[in-house]
# Entry
Amino acid sequence: MLPLSDNNFNLSKELDRIQKILKRNNPNALMGRSMTFEKGILIVIIFFALGLFVIPQTVSLFEGEHFWYSIEGGYGSKCLKCHADIYEELNQSAYHDTIDGVSGFSGNECYSCHRANLTITYANGSLDQPGREAHAASSISCTYCHFNASNPFNAPVAGGFGMTGLANDTGTEAAHRGFVLSSANGSISGSSLLLNASEACIACHTPVEITINFSVPTQFDITVRNSVSGSNSQWNVESIVATNLTVFLEEKK
Ligand code: HEC
Ligand code: HEC
Ligand code: HEC
Ligand code: HEC
# Structure
């Protein structure tokens, strides 16, 4: 406990001091008043104390915490509250501005992609449908639309990898089928960084930076065998094996 009796602080001495300073700075201010300075202070204190009871509680902890949105017309543009950076990216894109049914970017495109998966029950704002597998949004893969020839978004099909189920889409000649397959989940070397084959799609179709280690052979070992039958001598190439691998780093900035 602080010793109250000591001379560290003395209220009436302190008030005297303040009064003197005020008088010095503005001698007319307190002159000729019947009310003493102490009384003035007391009245101010009473005024504030009354205020505590009389003034109703008007300040919320968080501004706007009692203003609620109706989300029945879609919540899309509200996604930007927290993901404004992603909207900025989307806004620079040449594509995907029409998937919400309206051309031009508004933010509602988020809703179209991240609620596209119709096997998922989302909360839909109509009270009789609370969310089940997801509430506001879920992750999606590029292939959900682009490998599905009958997708309801009319997304152009990314054919030629043998993944669309379309007649003649065999993928047998596709240079990058291995790339797409190894990006897809489930295969032995599949990447789970993004869903399905999205890593391969964004690698080619977006400015994302890429680093690839190409392991390239710098030598052939050729085995040639000679076979002699009677007076006939014949040379056959038995095998060609690529060896002496060197790694070349390719970077796309
Ligand atoms: C109040 C802020 C907030 C709002 C509004 C919001 N998000 Fe998010 N979102 C987050 C946070 C925080 C995370 C990361 C944490 C997490 O996964 O729960 C996230 C993660 C995500 C992810 C990544 C999930 C994953 O598995 O990697 C997606 C996709 C997403 N949000 C989409 C949306 C969409 C679409 C909307 C609009 C319907 C939206 N968000 C609205 C804060 C928000
Ligand atoms: C919800 C469905 C959907 C998803 C998911 C989706 N897209 Fe699309 N995509 C579309 C539609 C619809 C179009 C055509 C209309 C448009 O551009 O607005 C399109 C257009 C494109 C185009 C332009 C094709 C052209 O030349 O006309 C590319 C490239 C593309 N998408 C790549 C991707 C990539 C990469 C992903 C994943 C990161 C992805 N898309 C995810 C629906 C989708
Ligand atoms: C054309 C479809 C498409 C549109 C439009 C779209 N997204 Fe995505 N988004 C994706 C895909 C595909 C991924 C990668 C998901 C995965 O595999 O994890 C993704 C990933 C995300 C993530 C995860 C974090 C990250 O950076 O990888 C967030 C958050 C997100 N989206 C929010 C949004 C918001 C907000 C909007 C609207 C401004 C939006 N998305 C519009 C397809 C889309
Ligand atoms: C090796 C790079 C590469 C990869 C990987 C790749 N694409 Fe493409 N994509 C291309 C090229 C190149 C074109 C043709 C562009 C042109 O000539 O107009 C194309 C065309 C498209 C088109 C337009 C198809 C049309 O009807 O004209 C869509 C949509 C598309 N790609 C989506 C995807 C998706 C989704 C993935 C992931 C599964 C993917 N791409 C993977 C390079 C790639």
In short: The helical segments are 11-25, 27-30, 37-54, 80-91, 108-114, 142-146, 177-183, 198-205. The two ends are 67 Å apart (CA to CA). Residues 37-54 form the longest helix (18 residues).
